[in-house]
Design brief:
The structure holds 2 protein chains of 2 kinds. Chain A is an alpha+beta fold. Chain A is 45% helix and 16% strand. By secondary structure, chain B is mainly alpha-helical. Chain B contains 8 helices and no strands. The termini of chain B are far apart. The chains are: A alpha+beta, B mainly alpha. Chains A and B meet through helix 1, helix 3 and helix 4 of A and helix 1, helix 2, helix 3, helix 5 and helix 6 of B.
Amino acid sequence: MTDDVRLDVEAHLLSRVVDRADAPRDWDDLQRLAGDDPALWQRLAYGLRDDCVLRTALSGVVARADAVELPAATPVTPPPAPPQPAAEARVGRRERASAAMGWAAALFLALAWWLHAGGSDRGVVPGTHAPEPLRPEAISVDHVASEATPSPALDDVGPAPVDPVSLDAGLAALTAPARPVDGSDADVVVEFPKQLLETRTLPDGRVEVLYIRRSVEREVVQGAWALTEDDLGRLQPVPVDLAALSPSELL
Amino acid sequence: MSDFGAAARAVAGDRRALDDLWREHRRWVATVLLAHKPRIAELDDLLQEVAVILVERVTELRDPRRLRPWLRRVAVNVARGAGRRQQSRPVDALPGPAEGLVDPSSEVGAVADRERLAHVLATVGRLPAEQREPLLLKALHGLTQLAIAELLDVPETTVETRLARARRDLRQRLDAPAPPRATGTDPWANPNVRMLP
């Protein structure tokens, strides 16, 4: 056995011991080799220690992977024709059916809402013809900025105007010069689409819809006060520095 | 390799199955990155890169049984891409305690142990990547040679040979007289420079 071959055999034997993949015959071979070179046992001990050092030193590094999750926003798109076993195919069909039912429910809710709240105002009878599309000029900047007040706006139960119109009007109104202080109510600058909270079918077949109405209003004021308790527990008005408030704070 | 069902669901677009797979595999993916990445690259950043590719491309995988080798290939490519970007030398791939990567809660406490640890890590970092990868996968995850062979897409005997040579070369390099310590910016000049007590 040449030295190179001997070293190669020894390396394989020691590696098997370190890997806990050794067999009784490997130990016979190791003992025979160590008869000529007792330092082999020391090399075996070093090999075991090197393995231990690596494991100890780097296990914490690799454990940092536990903090890395898959990105949440990126959608997973199914392949055109995935080769699925029967069980996986059933799962896929079930998921597709669930998705279709979800869309159908959303469509039903939107239709019910539209019919109840504003469809009849436009003279549209379901099933006869398509609703008249909203025209941009139907909501003017002047109307929004100068005439609308919170009360009539909140009394209006019709559907919210489509986004582009509302946003355009809102942007225009926001850039318009502020009115002088005259004690009038705040202006509704823009009304956003209502946000659905809950729906409930009533005994007579109609649908009750619970939603949040979102609007931006503007008001010019002399100042503002907040009520706080003094040392005796009495409510006292305290002036609020409106200019120092950040946009997200509640009034 | 019993996760065929989960892999099939993930490939078919099941996000929950994909999340579960990632949690199961991300540690050895980190090990593959560790074996191939340039020293300067942040492991966390590379893992994020692999995670993004996994989400975006997993549905293109034809055979779910190939998920592990595919994921390992993605990790290797990400690590090599980082290497190309930084024009780093592969010989400097493995991080060491000088970069603060050693688990501070590990049992490596004494100065002598830490110096030995730094020496071992530095030497492992100078092994060829094809030896370093199976060595780390074995040491850190206890994968069988067959499992490593499937990951690396090589015969099992090749893995056995690479492991044996990696350990032998590691030992020979560790036994060799230490080179004179460099000064200046070489992080190995003082292996305890950023070691936590």
